[in-house]
Design goal:
288 residues, alpha/beta, 10 helices, globular
Amino acid sequence: MKKQDAMYRDSVATARTLSQALPYLQRYDAAVVVIKFGGNAMGDDAAMNDFARDIVLLQQVGLNPVIVHGGGPMINEMLARLDIKSEFINGKRVTDAATVEVVEMVLSGRVNKRIVQAINAQGGKAVGLSGKDANLITCDQTNPDLGFVGTPVDMDVSILQTMFSADTIPVIAPLGNGRSGETYNINGDTAAGAIAGALKADRLLLLTDVEGVKDKNGDILTEMTPDQIIALTKDGTIAGGMIPKTETALAAINDGVHAVVILDGRAPNACLLELFTDHGAGSLIRAK
């Protein structure tokens, strides 16, 4: 009897949670949500399956999710296996001709298809592509010293609009075309921000391996404006690897994204907590 009581209480809690989510389901109906899924947030197969289930749920309740993924740890593993040494300048990988071939193989192949397969296994309909497909992302070289590293300059998101109308979830590897046919490696956050801006997305979720932006006391800043981000960067509160993420957030908001959230992708159901609960998750950045 106790087991039945516990099951009943769990069922009541589930029903209450669904009921409380109604205003958010209505709020995000047909909204575009771009999700940057970092390599460090992918975890094991169980974590991948949980993420994929959440993405399928987002689409089932009326959102248009777009996944842009990284894959740094997997690239490092393959480069080491092939005995190709990497150099870094200010934390950015120098990408020569040999390295960019490996980057494309890992991102468009192993990583992209793993995510696609996981989403499809949960009942979704995902299709993998890179920024090179359908001229989605055209790049200029970021810095000659970095080699084949690109900065998005022209975006054509018509292929993504077509996929939305076909109830298909795009899973995008952060690669782009150069103006002369080169292949460029793009920082995953940068690619996600450029795609979100071109789509005028309602939300850009940057899933990472930290809980969000922290103040000097180590507490999470749950909501910020661009002006606050700039001030916190100037005084050194925002530093290190958080700087490129907040820079991506500012650029995306400037391009028309309604809000950007930096959150811990390792937390269970992180996307659902952010979108469908009062508390949310991570640090939300938006213009006021």
